[in-house]
Each structure stands twice: as structure tokens, then as C-alpha cells.
Amino acid sequence: MPSFRALQPSVLKASARRPAEADFHSIHVPVARAMVDCGVYADGARLPGKYTHGGALAKVRELEASGVPAFVWIGLHEPDDHQMQAVADVFDLHELAVEDAVHAHQRPKLERYDDTLFLVLKTVNYVEHESMAKVREIVETGEIMIFVGRDFVVTVRHGDHGGLASVRKHMDSAPSNCRLGPYAVMHAIADHVVDSYLDVTDLVENDIDAMEENVFSPDSATDIEHIYLMKREVVELRRAVSPLAKDLERMGTDYNDLVSKEVRRYMRDVLDHTMKASDRIASYDEVLSSLVQAAVGKVSMQQNTDMRKISAWVAIAAVPTAIAGIYGMNFEHMPELKQVWGYPAVLLLMLTVCTTLYFTFRRNHWL
């Protein structure tokens, strides 16, 4: 029989291994935890009831078999790898697009994987603030990924803003739009996101106008850091909006076999709004570049003015300093050294010269 001393190391090793070997990463969170909503739409109307992602697609296929046009719309918020893969297995989503949807930080783009379109939209949100001095971020961004197939829409959202509840509510109340199929949902989401671009650019324009007024106001101090902050935010806006225009243009020519003519017409309207927002952002960038130059010029002028004032006061102070320095050299033979009125006369001379210099500099706008 083995001794206690012989068993002790193995027993301690086993007892220490049990909690350490608990792999918490292997505990899969159900898809329902990341699912915001899951709806089945038949002939444009949403069916009552709650569905899982698998049950919703099965219901759609059942309706299609009976001749009723139907599709499913699933909304996910920041799913992990396991949750996204579970949805991808049911809807046969491409692994590259699935990887992009999980890890986010993608540029706006539109890609095709067989009969599925994958659209990435950058969402933007304006951060309310009292003044530029108290803010470190003006525009925050997020992402919405949209998988669109023949009978399904899967949306994946990243970020705390950009919710699609209002879009879903609008689609639920407009069966005529839903009858156009899953690509009508893609249009509604894209239209919602692009409209937010216009709203944000309007608010950013107000900030830029306030900066412009401040830069060209003679009595206000100019802080170039605020202009640089706004320029950085405008660059982020441009990265979110500008690349989308090229992909939306392709929607009208490259995907005619997937997207109906009616939906392509609606997408052209989204493209127009995207171009409008992009043009605004480009103009803001130019204005801010001009404001930077104007602010630098204003600061240089202020520095020149300050230097003139300093030089003027130095010149005034140099006169009594020079006279006092001469009389402080202790030479025996100096003008008026033995006179009773010599000291007051020198003080009067200092005062007269300094006063003359002061009014001369004032007249020349140095003081």
C-alpha cells in the first residue's frame, strides 16, 4: 500500500489542476444573448411569435414551399465567434465575411459571396458638448454589417449607438416595402445610416461656424488645438462616408441578378445622400485647413504685437537705466555734480524723455 507521503504530491497536483483546468473560454454563450430581434415576414407582414435563428429559417422555407414569399430578419449585437458561427452555419454565410462581422473595424464596403451580399456601413454619432474646451471626441463611430440572401437578412451591429429599432418599426408598419424582399430591408438600413450622416454633418457645421467666428474675432483668444481636434473628427467622418459611395454605385450595375429594379432605384437615392454628405465633409476639411492657417497667422500677429509692446517698454526703461549708469561711474568731473539742483534736474530729464517715448509709441500703436 503506497504511503501518504508518496500519494501527497499527486493528490495535491490533481486538486490544484481541477480549478486551473476549468476552461471558461469553452463555455459557449447562446446566440439568444446576442440576438436583438428575430422576425419572420410573410408577404410583407411580420408574423407573430418568437423564433430562434434556426426555427425562423425553417418557418420561412415552409412558407416558401406553400407559395408564400417570406424572409427572416435577424439582428445581432456584438456576437462572439461561437454565436456568429452558429448563425453562419444555419444561413450558409461565407467564413471571410463572418470573420469581418465578428472582429469589426472594417472600412465601408460591399462584397458578394455567391448569392449573398455583404454590406458594411460605418455608423456615426454626434457627441453633445457645451464647449470645445471640455470635449475630447466630437464624432463617435460604430459599424453595421448586413448579410442579405434570397430569403434572409442578418444584421450585426457594433457600438452603443446606431440601433435599428426605428428601422424595424418602420418596416413592420409598411408591408408594401417588405414585399420587395430582404434587399428592401438592406435599403432601409442604409437609408437610415446615411441620413444620420447628414444630421451629424449639420451639427459639425455649427461647431465649425463657431470656430470660424472665434478665429476672426479680434477680442477672442484662438486655441489651435480645438481646430486640430475638429479636423481629426472630420477625417474620421470622411473615412466613414467617402468609401461607401463607390460601392453604392456598383449596386446599380453589378448586382442586377440579385437586387430588383425597384430596390435599385431606392438605392440611387441613398447614393445621392451619401454624395451630398461626402461633399459637405470635403468642404469642412478645406474650411478647417483655412482656419488653421488663419489661426496661425492670428497667433503670429499677436506675438508680433506683444513683441512690439515689450520692445517699447524696454526702450522706455533703457533711458533712466543709461543715465543712472553714467552717474554711477563715480568720475570726479561730471556735469552738474556739484549743483544743488543737479539731482532733481536729472530726474526731470529721465521723466521727460520717458514720457516723450511713451506717447510716441502710443501714437504709432506700439502700446
Labels describing this entry:
367 residues, alpha+beta, Beta Polymerase, domain 2, Methane Monooxygenase Hydroxylase, Chain G, domain 1, 2 domains, 7-stranded mixed sheet, disordered N terminus, cobalt ion binding, transmembrane, magnesium ion transmembrane transporter activity, magnesium ion binding
Structure description:
This protein is α+β, with helices and mostly antiparallel strands and 367 residues long. It folds into 2 domains: 28-299, CorA soluble domain-like (Beta Polymerase, domain 2, 2-Layer Sandwich), CATH 3.30.460; 301-363, Magnesium transport protein CorA, transmembrane region (Methane Monooxygenase Hydroxylase, Chain G, domain 1), CATH 1.20.58.340. 59% of the residues lie in helices and 14% in strands. The protein has helices at residues 4-20, 53-65, 81-91, 95-103, 165-172, 175-178, 182-215, 224-254, 261-327, 342-363; strands at residues 35-42, 45-46, 70-77, 109-113, 116-126, 139-148, 152-158. It has a 7-stranded mixed β-sheet, with helices on both faces. β4 and β5 form a beta hairpin. The chain starts with a helix and ends with a helix.
Which fold does the CATH topology of the largest domain refer to? Beta Polymerase, domain 2
Which structural class fits the helix and strand makeup? alpha+beta
- Assign the CATH architecture of the largest domain: 2-Layer Sandwich
Strand content: 5-15%
The CATH homologous superfamily of the largest domain is termed CorA soluble domain-like
Report the C-alpha radius of gyration, rounded: 36 Å
Give the low-pLDDT segments: 1-25
| CATH domain class of the largest domain | Alpha Beta
Strand order of the largest sheet: 2-1-3-7-6-5-4
Order of helices and strands: HEEHEHHEEEEHHHHHH
Number of strands: 7
End-to-end gap? 104 Å
Gross morphology: rod-shaped
Number of helices: 10
Mean pLDDT metric: 84
The domain count comes to 2
Biggest sheet record: 7 strands, mixed
Q: Helix amount, in percent?
A: 55-70%
Keywords: Cell membrane, Ion transport, Magnesium, Membrane, Transmembrane, Transmembrane helix, Transport
Membrane topology: Multi-pass membrane protein
GO molecular function, one term: cobalt ion transmembrane transporter activity
Subcellular location: Cell membrane; Membrane
